[in-house]
Amino acid sequence: MENSQKQRNKARKARVMRIRKKVRGTAERPRLTVTKSNKHLYAQLIDDVNGVTLKGVGTLSEAHKTLDIKGDDSSSARIKAAKQLGTELAEFAKSINIDTVVFDRGRWKYHGIIKALADSAREASLKF
């Protein structure tokens, strides 16, 4: 049992690194990275050159306590929260004169709440 868990973790890290070696963020074009857990969703704008996180938002943060998706297993509530996070990140990027980013989905497939976050950021005029 332990060996299969180690192999699974190794494969996850390999997927992340396969994407990360191609995706790098700069000050002019930061990396928009998305991470999710079973209960929450997190997104960050990262400048990899300087090693700085420009903005991080998540459903667990104080500003999003109204997005209580913790007890709600419905996909509509999770997608609604993802859309709100994407819009907020795009508005922040516009406020600091950034209009293009590099999208880093991590090890997650591009569907569901990951796609909802990306689409809402694009609708809010963020290009990637």
Task: Describe this protein's structure.
This protein is of the alpha+beta class and 128 residues long. The protein has one domain: Nucleotidyltransferase, domain 5, CATH 3.30.420. The chain has helices at 2-20, 75-95, 113-123; strands at 31-36, 41-47, 52-58, 102-104. Strands 3-2-1-4 form a four-stranded mixed β-sheet, covered by helices on one side. Strand 2 (41-47) and strand 3 (52-58) form a beta hairpin. Helix 2 (75-95) packs parallel to helix 3. The longest helix has 21 residues, at 75-95. The chain is globular. The N and C termini lie far apart (41 Å). The relative contact order is 0.18. The mean pLDDT is 88.
The overall pLDDT, averaged over residues, is 88
**Total beta-strand segments:** 4
The amount of helix comes to 25-40%
Strand content: 15-25%
Task: Tell me the Rg in angstroms.
Answer: 15 Å
Using the coordinates shown, work out and report the CATH topology. Nucleotidyltransferase, domain 5
**What class, by secondary structure content?**
alpha+beta
**N- to C-terminal distance:** 41 Å
Largest sheet: 4 strands, mixed
CATH architecture tag: 2-Layer Sandwich
CATH level 1 name: Alpha Beta
Principal-axis shape: globular
Spell the H/E element sequence: HEEEHEH
The number of domains is 1
Low-confidence stretches: none
Number of helical runs?
A: 3
Q: Biggest sheet, strands in spatial order?
A: 3-2-1-4
